[in-house]
Write a structure and sequence with these properties.
The protein has 194 residues and is α+β, with helices and mostly antiparallel strands. It has a domain of 94 residues: TATA-Binding Protein (2-Layer Sandwich), CATH 3.30.310. It is 16% helix and 34% strand. The chain starts with a helix and ends with a strand.
């Protein structure tokens, strides 16, 4: 069991050193096995996975789904279709580059911070009200995105004002997220929050 812990620690260190990495964790009832069953690394547009699964038949305890992405979102946008990412969005529990939207915060914009290719918007109380990240151009079609997000309810859909392109807005448990598509129906960016 100690080797598994060391292997997981080494995997976690390596994944955080990669330009872009994401992780989705599921914990088990067994106290020595609170390691990730799935850890995925992205960097330079190449995705790979490395995981530790020590108890395949373990009963999983209830935990709110969460997802963390670190790095440049424009390298490999496939994480936007990841089942764990979609579930975590529904539960308002996605972190991008260490920031997570507070759906209970007042949505009054005060200032922004740029982290890699992500913009984080804050209110006057310094709480995160929205996160907007760019995706790799011409890599995810609107049909593919909508298919991956069918478990979340669409609350609005339409054209982008006087610009070429469209948007699809989804409801979450306490907020929303919106995907923006170019005139060729390819994903351009995603905004989590207001």
């Amino acid at each position: 069991m100690n080797k598994v812990g060391k292997l997981f620690s080494a995997t976690l260190v390596v994944s955080t050193l990669v330009l872009g990495s994401s992780a989705a964790y599921i914990s088990t009832n067994s106290s020595p096995v609170q390691a990730a069953q799935q850890v995925q690394k992205w960097g330079h547009g190449e995705g790979g996975s490395s995981g530790v699964n020590t108890e395949s038949n373990a009963k999983l305890k209830a935990e709110t789904p969460w997802y963390n992405y670190e790095g440049y979102t424009t390298y490999d946008p496939s994480f936007t279709q990841d089942y764990n990412f979609v579930r975590a969005l529904k539960y308002d529990n996605v972190s991008i580059d260490g920031y997570k939207v507070d759906p209970k915060a007042t949505a009054e914009y005060d200032h922004s911070k740029k982290v890699y290719d992500t913009t984080v918007d804050f209110n006057g109380d310094n709480k995160v009200v929205s996160i907007t990240f760019l995706t790799k151009p011409d890599s995810v079609s609107k049909a593919t995105f909508k298919k991956a997000h069918t478990s979340n309810k669409i609350v609005d859909e339409g054209k982008l004002g006087n610009k070429d392109g469209t948007f699809v807005k989804y409801a979450t448990n306490a907020g929303s997220y919106t995907a923006f598509f170019d005139k060729n129906d390819n994903l351009m960016e995603v905004t989590i929050g207001q």
